[in-house]
Here is the input.
Amino acid sequence: MFKYGKKAGYMGIALLVLAVLPLVVAAFVIPNIGPEVATKFNAAGEVTRWGKSYELLALPVLNLLLSVATYFTAGRQAKNNDDSAAMARIVCERYLRNGCITGVFLNVVNVYFMYSAITGTGFGFGF
Here is the structure.
């Protein structure tokens, strides 16, 4: 991504780090918790559903797939606008910025899921 500027290159690296980070966290957390974890809480914070610990891998895998797809889409869309170098750079940066924001949000949600699985406490969203 450095082809489209230094900023796009660093955002591409950040996006890929944000994609891999939840998998690394899950690799350390999941083997150290029990086979069943609390996965859903009511409004009072009481556990209403128990699930298998491997269910905690769903969000890190989703994050990885979305981040990698965004990374390659940014390159493809920038290449489509290659007739103007400034436009290609802007398009690439826009896609990578959106991917980084999504990655940060999914990492925060992943931290909450891991924390609630480890402690068995959480807060309900009223769904």
